[in-house]
Amino acid sequence: MSDKKVRVRFAPSPTGGLHLGGVRTVLYNYLFAKKHGGDFILRIEDTDQTRFVPGAEEYIFDCLKWAGLEPDESVQHGGDFGPYRQSERKELYKNYAEQLVAEGHAYYAFDTPGELEQMRQQYRTDENPAPQYDNKVRMQMRNSLTLDGDTVHELMHSDTPYVVRIKMPDEETVSFNDMIRGEVSFNTSLVDDKVLLKADGMPTYHLAVVVDDHLMEISHAFRGEEWLPSAPVHVLLWKYLFGEDKMPQWAHFPLILGPSGKLSKRDGATYGFPVFAMNWTDPKTGDLTEGFKEMGFLPEAFMNLLAVLGWNDGTEQEIFSLDEMIEKFSMDRIHSAGAKFDYEKAKWFNHEWIKKLTVDRLQLLVKEVLKSKGIEVADDELLNKVIDLVKDRCTLLTDFYEQAGYIFSKRLKALIYLLFSRNGMMLKPCSSRS
Ligand code: GLU
């Protein structure tokens, strides 16, 4: 590893619930940073204003807090490389887009939505059902490569909307070394001319991620496998803007698989297990999707089960605390193949952690569960005894309610009191003050 300070980032677009795959990406970033004495940065990638979802950003912070994965730098934690919200960095990106155009690596495109649709219809074939804006069609479109200079100038200085697109080189091979997959290569002719700057002046993800990883001095860029097809665009942007030797080291984490391919929110609904870290309520529809936290998972167990979804330490060991994971984590023990999520196994981890945790730690969590069911516990001593008694029978934290909630339930106590007093027996009020 180079002697550059380790700086990693999680860069979510705040558009909804935080999927367990996202939390695993945070966890691996966090473990890597802490293992190498580095910093973990949280950057909010909110340049797509059409996907703005109120509350989604705060929700991400709440999830990380619950998981115990606090960033060193972020919108909430501050830092020397802010702003950490891309929408507040808008002015920064334009110059880079213009530099790319000036150097012939990008161009202005004026095509209207109607013209783009016409192009798709014109080039659609059985082999190519979704034609893209690429090296085969770009010279047929309305852009600064096909229009003369005066027209381009005129269009840009009238109110005509335009975007900036990367000009993918013809038949070049772009390669980079992925820390998990080794050398990965792409033929540039097969990649479309992605938009870099949109008509509203906002960058797209592709431009913003490269500019910000550079300005924030990110040493390692780790993200999910779904971003691998975008890598050639990013490698080229690095090469054109900052030099390939300055590029962070990349790693693309394996997909988390459900019963039918990539684990989705729909799988969760169909098979009855959570996929989000915490409860998420869609502000538009009001639909609630239950999270691991509210289902009764311990953050310790959640981190443990996520860590081993794609990583192991080379032994049979399955139970790891966060500190142990930091000590043992290494990128070369992450597999490139998808990791299958098994809910029964997830519950097994939780059960093991419930048995392992100290009563003091459990007490707080069990109190919270009981509180959510309307039961306030004031007698900690009694609660601790009860926890000790029933914890081996609990798989989820919510099981403590089923196993022991009645002991603290006021309604039940009142009922017993009533029954006993009806039968002429006097009952000394229970020692519990709850
Ligand atoms: N904004 C991207 C996302 O939502 C981040 C991808 C990356 O880490 O480069 O997943």
UniProtKB/TrEMBL annotation:
Localization (cell): Cytoplasm
Q: Which GO terms describe its molecular function?
A: glutamate-tRNA ligase activity
Respond yes or no to whether keyword Iron is given for this record.
Answer: no
Keyword terms, alphabetized: Aminoacyl-tRNA synthetase, ATP-binding, Cytoplasm, Ligase, Nucleotide-binding, Protein biosynthesis
Q: Which PROSITE patterns match?
A: AA_TRNA_LIGASE_I (PS00178)
Give me the reactions it catalyses: tRNA(Glu) + L-glutamate + ATP = L-glutamyl-tRNA(Glu) + AMP + diphosphate
Outline the extent of the Glutamyl/glutaminyl-tRNA synthetase class Ib catalytic domain. Answer: 5-348
Query: By its UniProt entry, which CDD domains does this protein fall under?
Result: GluRS_core
Q: Where is this motif: 'KMSKS' region?
A: 262-266
Which family does the similarity line name? Belongs to the class-I aminoacyl-tRNA synthetase family. Glutamate--tRNA ligase type 1 subfamily.
Q: What's the subunit arrangement here? A: Monomer.
| Full protein name | Glutamate--tRNA ligase
